[in-house]
Amino acid sequence: METVPEPGSNVPPKKDRLQTKKKKPRRYWEQETTGTAAGASPGPPRKRKRNRELRPQKPKKNDTSKKFRMSKKPRELKSPRPQRSLSGAQDPFAGPAPVSVEVVQKYCRIDKSKELPHPKTKTRSRLVVAEAQEEETSVRAARSELLLTEEPGFLEGEDGEDTAKIRQADIVEAVDIASAAKHFDLNLRQFGPYRLNYSRTGRHLAFGGRRGHVAALDWVTKKLTCEINVMEAVRDIRFLHSEALLAVAQNRWLHIYDNQGIELHCVRRCDRVTRLEFLPFHFLLATASETGFLTYLDVSVGKIVAALNARAGRLSVMTQNPYNAVIHLGHSNGTVSLWSPAMKEPLVKILCHRGGVRAVAVDSTGMHMATSGLDHQLKVFDLRGTFQPLSARTLPQGAGHLAFSQRGLLAAGMGDVVNIWAGQGKASPPSLEQPYLTHRLSGHVHGLQFCPYEDVLGVGHSGGITSMLVPGAAEPNFDGLESNPYRSRKQRQEWEVKALLEKVPAELICLDPRALAEVDVISLEQAKKERAERLGYDPDARTPFQPKPKQKGRSSTASLVKRKRKVMDQEHRDKIRQSLEQQLQKQEKAKPTGARPSALDRFVR
Amino acid sequence: MNANQAAESLLASNQQKELEDLPKDYPLSTSEDEGDKDEERKHQKLLESISSLNGKDRQKLADRSEASLKVSEFSVSSEGSGEKLVLSDLLEPVKTSSSLAAVKKQLNRVKSKKTVELPLHREEIERIHREVAFNKSSQILSKWDPVVLKNRQAEQLVFPLSKPQSAFAPIEHVVNGWKAGTPLEQEIFNLLHKNKQPVTDPLLTPVEKASLKAMSLEEVKMRRAELQRARALQSYYEARARREKRIKSKKYHRILKKGKAKQALKDFEKLQKVNPAAALEELEKLDKARMMERMSLKHQNSGKWAKSKAIMAKYDLEARQAMQEQLARNKELTQKVAASESEEEGEGQEEEEEPLVPDLVNEVQIKANGLNPWMFRNHFIDAKEAEVQKDLEDPAEPEAQETSESEEEKAVVEEETLLKEFEERRSLRQKSELNHMAEPVHRRVTKDPSSQEVLSDLRALCQKLSTENHQSGKQELSSARTAQREEPAREEEEPMLLQRPERARTLDELEELGREGCVENEELPRTAVEGLQLEKNLSNHIGAPKEKKRKEQMIDLQNLLTTKSPSVKSLAVPTTVQELEDEEERDQRQIIKEAFAGDDVIRDFLKEKREAVEASKPKDLDLTLPGWGEWGGIGLKPSAKKRRRFLIKAPEGPPRKDKNLPNVIINEKRNTHAAAHQVQVLPHPFTHHQQFERTIQTPGSTWNTQRAFQKLTMPKVVTKPGHIIKPIKAEDVGYRSSSRSDLSVIQRNPKRLSIRHKKHLENNCVD
User: Fold this and answer.
1) Where is the composition biased (Basic and acidic residues) (chain A) (predicted)?
2) Can you tell me the mean pLDDT for A184-212?
3) b/e string for B443-467 if b means 16 or more Cβ within 10 A?
């Protein structure tokens, strides 16, 4: 293997030299000057402004959660009065540090706008406590956002300049040396198109060539851990939970190697595997095979959890939803089906394309799915319940490979070109209007993956491996306890134990993971019904109104009956009112929209 | 005293038996008891009686409080009389003496007294005792309620319970107790202490404080006199008020009231002259009182007093008058001010009018303004689209508010204004497009689908307007078709009124684009195809309204997959494609289309979906038994009536989640594996599952910070190993325990309180 200069660097350099500016985090003792200098620099020599910032170098702990429901209720955070000290001086910043309400709202998980059925006093006190706790935790989470020191990188063209025109060579020239070293090319023409996979920490890279070449390396230091030839066609390659284990889908069976290149297992129950996908929290290796089976292998105990027949012929398109660990399969009839090991049938089936589906990718928030089909269309679907396309584009030659980055950038490999689209923010879908970056490779794309926690896109193609720089692709702050790129061997072992202890059972995979935090209403109702049946009466039923006898001679039977009657009538009226409202709603629905009788109606037959 | 004693002795003689076991307190009677010293005693008695004859002690002779068989000859006895002594006989001679009237009275009282009641049953007595004891102990125990409640609600209890730690002594105290060691320190402290400079907050020295507190003697005296005077005045006033209050004369009160009213009027007039602003305020107050009255309706004959008066009014003239007076007052108070009345009425009418028009009507009108039903193309439910629609409808809404009578006239005008608006917008857009011409080409070609939708909506609105301008249906159709034929990405928004020049322009543009090689040549024919499709759809709509729903779904799906998305023209086109010329590309597209013509993906999918829906539907239960009640055999089927009768229809399940999503099949089956991990029983205080769900929204360490997690998982009770957990004592919680038990009546220790108070004072001083 050798590192070669990328093809893009052969082109003649631009006339005006690029001014590089690495954006430094502003310290509190510094004045505003640095910011303004970076913001609006009117100097004539600086024609282009390209600010780029790559990944952080320091490990930082980030233990705050990333996805929450928001509540609308605004809140003020109070700061207590300053306390006196011995010297008589007062603390100018007394009390806890202020937190911005928006950030707190981001971490709120109780939707207070939702009305609860009227609780009893005892219950209400519990609810109040729970709400207070939730508020406190969200405030704490918002406070700890202070620890997310790093900001994502970005690439900006000068006004009117298209970022897609910026070449890799330009970027490499503009960035610092450490970041520039992350752009490299592996010229491996001998063993055919390559599939590749980054480990979860983003530190290690494994790739397998069609003609049997399998290698793993620490790609940052370029230290090779192992390199073998399995003497068999390699369909796909994937790291298991850590970089020490490697699953390779070979021509016949699935093999598992360690980081020395020693074959540990040959899983014969998974044969003719075309695609591999590893679910890190469940320790499941999902394999899609030519025979049409989707098999889940639990790598922690070595058992096959579920083998599901997709009934759709050869499976060659697979991806996972990182949000809920649901497997998405693309089929030749234009549908994408969503699978969980707990269900024998697909959870959802979506008709996406007129032709077969060529590639599927799901973003890290689990909100958007990008698909590309044989009809040369690229579509972005909304996965939050509606499964409708948000945007669609026809590409000159349909995308054969798709990948989402951690921050929601979408990369598509079309022939020997890689296009990258960016959205507005992290959770927004990529706007397909204009590519963010484009890059031409020396061969046809065969595998695409964004490197976690690095602004790097790894592309496996027929000419080898290319590591592209994509500013702003990755999450800048990583959780040091969860996936630490700089961890030692000992740390890795400890993490492994912890991860195994926290393994999520396979049957918990479902479309909405939050549903697990809900009460199983159906069985609750069932139990209630059975209890009522057993007892012969419903103990929870509301007792009919019985008027209380009143003093002072007003408690005549007639008045009692009258009062009873009154309450009954009221209830009856309420019921009727409700049913009337329902009927009205139904009628409204039934009415064709805009069914105002027009003058031409009389001619309608 | 003597009289009492005499009476007692008389009683005693009457009820000898009972009195025999009375205590022998009296000195005389004790001496009489001795039998053997009878003689002596008699003698003594005689002597005494003789001696008493001449003095005050004469009465003592009659004294006798002890019942005995042998009575001295000097005292009265009933012995030997043979019949019982009656009280009245005894009283006969006393009658004359007035000094015994009191005795007589007393006797009467005694006579009138009944016999002592029977004692209560033992059970009842015990019950009373129990009740009293319970009340007492519950009262004692209730003192603990706040403690118990506090402990129950506490986030965490640490056992053994330690007293709340006294707060750390503030550093000022520490400093006060600190002795200066080094000479420098001593010097500094000397300086500080000499001036009694406050160590902490430099406000006032003690001397200054003291001087501030002090007051001169004259001042104190004056103040005291003032206070005295005020007190005296107050007491006078109170006395007077009390006296006046006690006057019951109605006339007096009436006069008083009238006088007050007159006085008020006078004051008001005066005020009006002196200070008109204040007078106005007064007037407002009056008005406010009126309003309050109007609200409360206090002076109507509905109060307690009024009701009682109403009963009396029949007979009592005064009551009738009072009632009338009250009614008059009510009238006066509730009368509206003439000027504001008309305004209010107008407002009221308006207010009434609005709710009079039901919401439904408004909605229908809005809808009518929105889209033409015949030209309506069903789009997918999209939030963006909904917003856009709302925006479009906004200008039309005021129109909907108006009544239907004036609508027809106004509608025309408004339509014209709307059209004008749209034209303005269009012209603006055209300008912007011209501006866009200067920009790079790809921008022009690629456009957001959402904007497309906006444009299509706009177009629909325009078309609808055109229909209202009494154009024939055919024209509509043609216009729609022509509109469709335009290039959808750019020109969809053009209303058919101005389409001709527009289209020419677009063709020019197309040519230009073609020259630049950045346009899809296929677009024109495609749009034509779409136009045709639309026409077909339209005919479908008109022809078969009943099949509309099914058709709509179909159309949706078709649209979904066939709507042409604008193509991306990136800088780097894949090499293979780059070699192709545009025509070749077109050919390739055609090939692809032909290739997919055979397998109708959409139809297959719809079929699959229909099957899934059918499979998930609850099945009807057929209980017909062939051959019962009619002829049976091969080839004979039970009659339709019978089948209908024995068919039990399954209840309709909830609507499917993918009911409105034509391109999706959502599995409705329950995930039993996941359900096994869900909570299936509601814990105690919760009555609804939503309540419980709200309390379990912050799970685990994965989604919380370390500190928050630790706090959330804090144990409710913490015990120290090896430490005895003793029951709570009163002292632990700040009560004083009595000598008897913890349950004794608990009081606050005054001594302790005083100590605390002192401490508090000290602290204050230090501060």
Assistant:
1) 53-66, 531-541, 567-578
2) 95
3) ebbbbebeebbbbbbbbbbbbbbbb
Whether residue A117 contacts residue B688, with contact meaning beta carbons closer than 8 Å, is answered with yes
Please list every residue in chain A whose beta carbon sits closer than 8 Å to the beta carbon of residue B576.
397, 415
Q: What percent of chain B has pLDDT over 70?
A: 46
Q: Which tens digit of pLDDT belongs to each residue from B262-315?
A: 998 898 888 888 888 888 888 898 888 878 877 776 666 777 777 887 787 778
Q: Of B485, B482, B431, B492, whose CA–CA distance to B458 is shortest?
A: B492
- As a whole number of angstroms, the distance between CA B506 and CA B491 comes to 8
| pLDDT band, residue A347 (cuts 50/70/90) | very high
Inspect the interface and report whether the beta carbons of B695 and A130 lie closer than 8 Å. Answer: yes
Q: How far apart are CA A286 and CA A288, in angstroms?
A: 7
Q: Who among B571, B691, B712 is closest to A133 (CB)?
A: B712
How close A140 gets to chain B, by Cα (Å)?
A: 7
Phi-psi domain of B394 (left: phi exceeds 0; alpha: psi -120 through 50; beta: other): alpha
Of the candidates A116, A333, A414, which has its C-beta nearest B690's C-beta? A116
Of B604, B673, B677, the CB nearest to A333: B604
What are the distances in angstroms from CA A217 to CA A143, A279, A342, B301?
A: 38, 22, 36, 98
DSSP β-ladder status, A293-298 and A303-309: antiparallel
pLDDT score at B715:
93
Q: What are phi and psi of B505, to 5 degrees?
A: -65, -45
How far is it, in rounded angstroms, from Cα B436 to Cα B445? 11
Answer for the pair A339, A327: CB distance below 8 angstroms, yes or no.
yes
CA dihedral sign of residues B110, B114, B115, B119: negative
| Burial class of residue A374 (count of CB atoms within 10 Å of its CB; 0-12, 13-18, 19+) | middle
User: What residue in A sits closest to B378 (Cα-Cα)?
Assistant: A593
Q: pLDDT digit string (tens) for B329-355?
A: 777 777 765 544 444 444 444 443 343
Is the pLDDT at A19 greater than 70? The verdict is: no
As given in the structure block, the two tokens for residue B183 are 């000479």
Write the residue in B565, B566, B697 that is nearest to A110 by C-beta: B697
What 3-state DSSP class applies to B298? coil
Q: Which of B639, B766, B700 is nearest to B196 (CA)?
A: B766
Q: Bridge-partner residues for A218, per DSSP? A: A204, A223
Nearest to A394 among B202, B566, B708 (CB): B566
Q: Six-digit token pair at A233?
A: 């066609």
Q: Which of B705, B711, B767 would best serve as a mutation to test chain A binding (most A beta carbons within 10 A)? A: B705
Contacts of A210 (CB under 8 A, 6+ apart): A191, A192, A193, A194, A233, A234, A446
Contacting B residues, span 384-443, partner chain A, CB-CB under 8 Å: 440, 442-443
**Distance from the Cα of residue B610 to its chain's centroid:** 49
pLDDT of residue A56: 43
pTM of the model: 0.57
For B444, name the nearest residue in chain A, comparing CA atoms only. A433
What are the DSSP calls for B194-262, one per residue? HTT--SSS-S--HHHHHHHH---HHHHHHHHHHHHHHHHHHHHHHHHHHHHHH---HHHHHHHHHHHHH
Most B CBs within 10 Å: which of A85, A397, A442, as the mutation test of the B interface? Answer: A397
Strands B717-719 and A389-394: unpaired
Residue B101: pLDDT over 90:
no
| pLDDT number for residue B286 | 83
The Cα A427–Cα A407 span in angstroms is: 8
Contact A524 B592 (CB under 8 A): no
pLDDT score, position B94:
53
Q: Is A136 on the interface with B (CB under 8 A)?
A: yes
On chain B, the residues whose CB falls within 8 A of the CB of A117 are 687-688, 690-691
